[in-house]
Amino acid sequence: MTSVMRFLSSIVNILCIPLHLIHAVGLYGIYKRILPICINRMAKSYNKKMHDKKKDLFCVLPEFKKAGGQLTILEIGCGTGANFEFYPPGSRLICTDPNPHFEKYLTETMAKNDHLRYERFVVASGEDLRAVEDDSIDVVVCTLVLCSVDDVSQTLREAHRILRPGGAFFFLEHVAGDTSTWTYFFQHVLQPLWYYFGDGCWIVRETWKYVEEAGFSDLKLRHIEAPLFFIMKPHISGYAVK
């Protein structure tokens, strides 16, 4: 089965040669301008299907607010702001994303979520949050982002660095399926095409291993099945305390 999987993946990779060339000559940047439009539509559908799971995940956010203060949340790869409706009222929010074209949609989403205090938007990758001070954030949120960062370990190191002691890193990520399943098989076959469709997304990434090795003092991690297209079903959800 492994040899067949690799052969079919190679065929898909060959079929993606035009996409490889577009990326090589720099024309892929045009897609990054269009991407926020696509993500804005997909995020609404994802939120409807994952509403209860997101609600369960984020219901414990208030536990990480410092006594007498505001809850400070920094979201890595905030996209169009699909998580904002789940954040506690009065939270102070810092948004980061490497794609500056998301800011328009962020502004619209913030207008619909006036229970939050919108602090700023920082154009930055998850691997480089130098604009944020050490030990300054109560909660870092990362959903459907670790699949597409270039360096997962560095992103988690940055999240750990900016969290105050006792702060928490919240995550909800799609991951590789079990090796014995057809989900795993087709994830690997379609990965070359999915990389471009998902703006650098690695659907075969075993993200839970990186989170487990990130050096947090306490980890609450669950493997869950999302009500999505079969190669997107495997997810991990939880939080890790610094």
What this model shows, in words?
By secondary structure, this protein is α/β, with parallel strands linked by helices. The protein has a single domain, classed as Vaccinia Virus protein VP39 (Rossmann fold, 3-Layer(aba) Sandwich), CATH 3.40.50.150. It has seven helices and seven strands. It has helices at 2-15, 17-24, 29-58, 103-112, 152-162, 182-197, 207-212; strands at residues 72-76, 92-97, 117-123, 137-143, 163-174, 218-225, 234-241. Strands 3-2-1-4-5-7-6 form a seven-stranded mixed β-sheet. β6 (218-225) and β7 (234-241) form a beta hairpin. The mean pLDDT is 93. It comes from Maylandia zebra (zebra mbuna). InterPro entries: Methyltransf_11, SAM-dependent_MTases_sf, Thiol_S-MT. This is Thiol methyltransferase 1A. The chain crosses the membrane at residues 7-31. One of its GO terms (molecular function) is S-adenosylmethionine-dependent methyltransferase activity.
